[in-house]
Write a structure and sequence with these properties.
Blueprint (H helix, E strand, L loop, with lengths): L3 H15 L9 H13 L8 E12 L2 E13 L2 H9 L3 E11 L2 E11 L6 E6 L8 H5 L1 H18 L5 E2 L21 E2 H10 L2 E6 L2 E6 L9 H6 L3 E3 L4 E5 L3 E2 L7 E3 L3 H10 L5 E5 L2 E7 L7 H9 L3 E3 L4 E7 L3
Parallel strand pairs: 2-6, 7-12, 13-17
Antiparallel strand pairs: 1-2, 3-4, 4-5, 8-9, 9-11, 10-11, 14-15, 15-17, 16-17
Helix pairs in contact: 1-2
Length: about 325
């Protein structure tokens, strides 16, 4: 798409200025929005993708005190269908509606994928998403089907697009800032990758993520980026830091994949020299990668993330459940 980068930068500047948060242009979430839109060729002016600034508050002595902004990327649901079609593996979609006392209860979406013996089935319940709005009261099947379809495609094709509008609660206008939208914690490893690319390293020190300059990079010249990502400068010890509670330290995950991926995952684990265990219990396969047996480098961690492994902090391992295993 010609001049998309300029279109995105103009859109971001206009959106941030209209919400009085232009200082956040270099924040990780805003830059992630631009990278995602460029990767998938999404034009905000064609309503392919939106950027929603959201005010954050923290409790201070019982009072809610403004604590900066965070940003949510929202994508149109038809882009999920387009992404699945572009793989050349989509072989059919169907939706089945279930009612209780003539009231919609749930939707089951079935995705047929070439090369997979069994279809992907995904269930979404109305009470998990319904809102007291006109569109939900008049078109509950349409609204719920969008959510179910997107989530099914996300699982079946491991599509890494942002959430769609309908998945985000209490969001009435995709062009306005919203104070009540649930905020997902930033994934530390994605954040670290972005910071590393601009010469900033990160390390966990106690309860804080601390920034440092990589090589000859001086953090003084990067202070505007640190501020826009809500890092604070501790004058007593001379460091930039951010509390670890703002981050998720889990690999991004889709919890289940289909059994034809088993051989691929085993082969990939072996090629990446990752020690693992695999067992099948009642038709469900379980992969586990104990951290005590692995000092994972970035490439190994990326492979686990790409295969949708989930990090279980209490067990100190990465795990993956596969339904329909032989």
């Amino acid at each position: 798409m010609e001049n998309l980068e300029k279109i995105l930068n103009d859109y971001v500047v206009a959106t941030l200025k209209s919400n009085n948060c232009i200082d956040y242009k270099d924040s990780f979430e805003v830059q992630s929005f631009i990278r995602t839109a460029l990767k998938y060729q999404l034009d905000p002016y064609l309503k392919d993708i939106y950027l929603i600034p959201t005010k954050k508050y923290r409790n201070v002595n019982g009072n809610n005190v403004f604590d900066g902004y965070t940003f949510q990327s929202i994508v149109s649901y038809h882009k999920y269908v387009e992404a699945a079609q572009n793989t050349g593996l989509l072989n059919g979609i169907s939706s089945e509606y279930f009612f209780v006392n003539n009231q919609l209860e749930k939707i089951v979406v079935t995705i047929h994928k070439k090369g997979c013996e069994k279809p992907f089935l995904h269930t979404v319940y109305l009470d998990e998403y319904v809102l007291d709005t006109k569109i939900w009261r008049t078109k509950p099947k349409t609204m719920l089907n969008k959510i179910a379809l997107v989530q099914a495609l996300r699982i079946a094709f491991q599509i890494r697009l942002p959430y769609i509008f309908e998945e985000i609660e209490n969001c009435d206008n995709p062009n306005a800032s919203v104070d009540t939208t649930p905020i997902e914690k930033v994934n530390f490893y994605d954040f670290e990758k972005y910071f590393n690319s601009i010469g900033i390293g990160l390390k966990l020190v106690g309860n804080f993520v601390v920034a440092y300059g990589i090589g000859d990079k001086n953090l003084y010249t990067q202070s505007h980026i640190l501020k826009s990502n809500n890092f604070v400068f501790d004058k007593e010890v001379g460091i930039w830091k951010k509390h670890k509670e703002n981050f998720s330290f889990e690999a991004k995950t889709i919890k289940t994949v289909q059994s034809p991926s088993i051989a691929f995952i085993k082969d990939g684990l072996e090629k990446n020299k990752i020690d693992f265990d695999f067992k099948v219990i009642k038709g469900i396969g379980y992969f586990s990668v104990p951290l005590k047996d692995n000092e994972l480098d970035k490439e190994q961690r990326k492979f686990l993330d790409d295969c949708c492994f989930h990090f279980y902090e209490n067990k100190s391992l990465f795990g993956l459940k596969i339904e329909g295993a032989a």
